[in-house]
Design brief:
Blueprint (H helix, E strand, L loop, with lengths): L3 H9 L11 H10 L7 E5 L4 H14 L4 E4 L11 E3 L2 E2 L2 H15 L9 H14 L5 E5 L16 E4 L7 H4 L3 H8 L8 E4 L6 H10 L2 E4 L5 E4 L4 E5 L2 E6 L9 H14 L8 H10 L7 E3 L4 E5 L4 H13 L6 E5 L7 H8 L5 E5 L9 H11 L6 E5 L2 H11 L5 E5 L2 H9 L4 E2 L2 E2 L3
Parallel strand pairs: 1-5, 1-6, 2-5, 6-7, 7-8, 13-17, 14-15, 14-17, 15-16
Antiparallel strand pairs: 2-3, 3-4, 9-10, 10-11, 12-13, 18-19
């Protein structure tokens, strides 16, 4: 295997399960590899806001002149997006070498079975460990306590908003899910909790292990008006900040946690106020309430659980009046679809339900059936499609210039339309 697609195909068939929670197998292979990161590490967990938090941390540290690595998943279009070095996707050749290193360690002695995520995480960490860096930012894939990235001890942990998702693995309520997220904390090291109403289990775990808890509303505070915002906490104050370039009201919550993490890490990685201002101004993150200007306007958002879909609905409502809003929607079958559909349906006029290229996905017909159960035939209309790109093409064909199209529901949904190239919207070719 001498190319990335071959390695990815190989990893997909190694383990009988897509997800197999636990660190013993991953840690053993990492030990065989001699895996180690030689610079400060920030690990980010949470139900929503993880990726945006990582992107803002990365942008600010880059503006401060630091050499950065960010590991996040899943990817939208290309696997290489999962590791950014100095703000750019990693080269495939570097990943190939990382996969080869994992395989050599995995099969030295008694072979150890790894899932696709575990194998690829170790390969990415191998690349990170061989790169000269100043800071590494790791996004938890699922949960925290038993996620593969948790074999690395972070110098600072960040826990973003916590809500109900992946309940078959993490538990049936916020307290149980919070316990899993809290597993990324380390004794004596800072943990920033940016959820305004965190589960008690998170606070209890921090106290139990002696972590340095930074809690919004107590250890740091945020205030602002429509033009600017202020942050204060533990000997630092930033005033007159512009809002983050990432759109959506929820991004201020994420940004507040970012500034707390930067402050907690200031002895290891000092940053200036100007680096913070520039980092927030220039941050980019595809697929997170990403607005593509055109006629009609296009909105891309990977919202895929009730909490993130509620935020998307609020953000769409705040955009103002559009004659008609068209929604391209595809989602995993294990998601809590009823509240997702109920929360966003009031701002959607026409639905374009789509199949997705994974057995985990709900079919377009099932999504339509779930929607119809809540909305007996009324003024809204819907249609079924075999792939996201076809659904978007139909929405573009049906939309008037004054309309709006929103693509959401899964990384596969947003990635599916991006992979095919976004369509011409009334004469303008849009490629990002």
């Amino acid at each position: 295997m001498n190319n990335l697609p071959d390695w990815l195909a190989y990893c997909e068939q190694l383990h009988p399960k897509n997800i197999d929670m636990g660190l013993d197998r991953v840690r053993e292979v990492a030990t065989r590899m001699g895996l180690a990161l030689k610079c400060p590490v920030i690990t980010v967990a949470g139900t929503n806001g993880k990726g945006s938090t990582c992107a803002m941390l990365e942008s600010i540290y880059l503006q401060a002149g630091y050499r950065t690595a960010v590991y996040s998943s899943p990817h939208l279009v290309h696997f290489e997006e999962r590791l950014r070095l100095q703000g750019q996707p990693v080269q495939a050749d570097a990943l190939v070498a990382g996969f080869a290193a994992v395989e050599a360690a995995r099969t030295s002695g008694e072979a150890i079975s790894l899932t696709y995520f575990e194998f690829s995480t170790l390969a990415i960490l191998d690349v990170v460990g061989r790169t000269a860096l100043d800071v590494v930012i790791l996004e938890v894939g699922l949960g925290g306590r038993l996620d593969a990235v948790n074999i690395i001890d972070p110098d600072c942990a960040v826990i973003t908003s916590i809500d109900l998702d992946h309940m078959e693995f993490l538990g049936n309520d916020r307290e149980a899910i919070g316990r899993e997220k809290a597993g990324i904390m380390r004794a004596g090291r800072p943990v920033v909790v940016s959820d305004p109403v965190p589960p008690q289990s998170v606070l209890d775990h921090a106290q139990r292990i002696g972590a340095d808890l930074w809690r919004v509303g107590q250890d740091f505070n945020v205030a602002g008006d429509p033009q600017q915002w202020n942050w204060a906490g533990r000997g630092r104050r930033y005033s007159g900040l512009a809002y983050p370039a990432l759109r959506g009201a929820n991004q201020l919550v994420n940004a507040s946690g970012v500034l707390a993490a930067l402050t907690a890490m200031r002895e290891l990685l000092p940053v200036t106020a100007q680096a913070i201002r520039n980092g927030l101004a220039f941050v980019e993150f595809a697929g997170r309430f990403q607005i593509i200007a055109g006629k009609p306007m296009l909105v891309l958002d990977v919202a895929h659980n009730p909490h993130s879909v509620a935020a998307l609905a609020a953000n769409l409502d705040a955009m103002g009046y559009f004659a008609c809003t068209h929604a391209v929607f595809g989602a995993m079958a294990d998601k809590d679809l009823a509240p997702m559909l109920a929360r966003i349906n009031p701002v959607i006029d026409r639905w374009y339900f789509t199949d997705l290229p994974t057995p985990r996905a709900a079919t377009a017909a099932d999504l339509q059936s779930r929607w119809l159960a809540q909305n007996p035939p009324s003024g809204a209309r819907s249609a079924l499609f075999a792939e996201p790109a076809a659904a978007l093409a139909a929405a573009v064909a049906a939309a008037d210039p004054a309309d709006r199209i929103v693509v959401f529901g899964s990384f596969y949904t947003v990635g599916g339309v991006m992979q095919q190239g976004l369509p011409r919207l009334h004469g303008e070719h849009l490629s990002s």
